[in-house]
Amino acid sequence: MTSVKAETTKKKSASQADGKQDVVEQSLITAYIMGKAYKVPADATIMGAIEYAGHQIIRGAGCREGYCGACATIYRLPGDYKIRTGLACMTLVEEGMTLAQIPSVPAEKAIYDIEQLKPNVTAIQQMYPSVFRCVACNTCTRSCPQGLQVMDYVQAAKRGDIATVMDLSFDCVVCGMCMLRCPAEITQPLMAIMAKRLYGRYLRQDSPELAERVKAVEGHAYDAEYAELMSMSRENLSKRYYARDTE
Amino acid sequence: MYPDYMAESLRKVAQTRAKRLELARKTEPVYPPMNAEERQAVLEGFHPDYEPSARRPVRVGPNKGETLTTEVSELLESHSWLRGVQVNLDKPDFETDLLIIGGGGAGCNAALIAMKEHGIRSIIATKLRMGDANSMMSQGGMQAAVSRTDSPTRHYLDAIGGGHFENKPELVRALTEDGPGVVKWLEDLGVVWDKEQDGSMKVMHGGGTSRKRMFSCRDYTGAMIMRTLMDEVRNHPDMIDIKEFMPAVELIMDDNGRCAGAILYSMDSEEFFVVKAKSTLIATGGYGRLHIRGFDTTNHYGSTGDGLVMAYRAGAKLMYMDSVQYHPTGVSFPEQIAGFLVTEAIRGAGGQPLNKEGELFVFPREPRDIEASAIIRECVQNGGGVPTPSGRVGVWLDSPLIDMLHGEGYTEKHFPAMYRQFIRYGIDITKLPMLIYPSLHYQNGGIEINERCETDIPGLYVAGEATGGLHGRNRLMGNSVLDYNVFGQRAGRYAGEYAKTVKLGKLSLAHLDSYEKELANAGVKTDLVTPVLLPSYAPKDVKKRQLLRGNNVLPGSSVLQNRLFDERPDA
Question: Do B310 and B340 fall into the same domain?
Answer without folding.
Answer: no
